[in-house]
Amino acid sequence: xxxxxxxxxxxxxxxxxxxxxxxxxxxxxxxxxxxxxxxxxxxxxxxxxxxxxxxxxxxxxxxxxxxxxxxxxxxxxxxxxxxxxxxxxxxxxxxxxxxxxxxxxxxxxxxxxxxxxxxxxxxxxxxxxxxxxxxxxxxxxxxxxxxxxxxxxxxxxxxxxxxxxxxxxxxxxxxxxxxxxxxxxxxxxxxxxxxxxxxxxxxxxxxxxxxxxxxxxxxxxxxxxxxxxxxxxxxxxxxxxxxxxxxxxxxxxxxxxxxxxxxxx
Length: 265
Ligand SMILES: [Zn+2]
Ligand SMILES: [Zn+2]
Fold this sequence. Notes:
Elements: H1 3-6, E1 18-23, E2 26-30, E3 42-46, E4 51-54, H2 63-67, E5 75-78, H3 84-87, E6 95-99, H4 103-108, H5 122-130, E7 162-164, E8 169-171, E9 176-181, E10 190-194, E11 199-203, H6 221-232, E12 238-241, E13 247-248, H7 249-262
Parallel strand pairs: 4-5, 5-6, 6-7, 11-12
Antiparallel strand pairs: 1-2, 2-3, 3-4, 8-9, 9-10, 10-11, 12-13
One zinc ion is lined by residues 81, 83, 185, 204.
């Protein structure tokens, strides 16, 4: 008998996404029925001439449908990096941007892209186990709809329409975000920096409440340390991480200092 055959059926979620305005024209979208290890934050930022959507969740529910009522201007959807919990819904949007160094992974989606932790690289599972909590095999506790194919789900590969490089600007009219190439978690990880407000959208480069993951298959601890040193030099005010809560400058400096204290480079 297979595991799938023994498993009781999951309930269907009343609503897949949670959408919450967090201030400064920024809305957070999360997936409450996804296990916290892969429950990422997507950020919708509203400018006078366009919307910036940073990350798009797992692709289990239809994010474009959820946001349809909010998207009254052109949207650029950006993947902060190539991990499946961040770009799953990217293909639902017409303009899709990412850094080239993670592009091949996003465009082929050949990394661990299922909802079963058993398919993940041992290094990822080991890191979480070392942090004190084993990763459960099944990463959702409800279905987005009764027809959802839990065992057949794979993060869809996505064609990128705009390649982002360090120093690029994403112009939203009255707001503008600078692309910072911040490798280490993955080679093509990026952060987005708005100098006017001191807002940093940081992907998995800088998160609160979870370990900074630098032992994944394409991670580089040395690059990670260099990226964090760069972020520490910014006049940060508010950080919108790829997981966990919004946090401020002091907490950002604590997290960076903790990481650098343990880094060998
Ligand atoms: Zn990641
Ligand atoms: Zn992540």
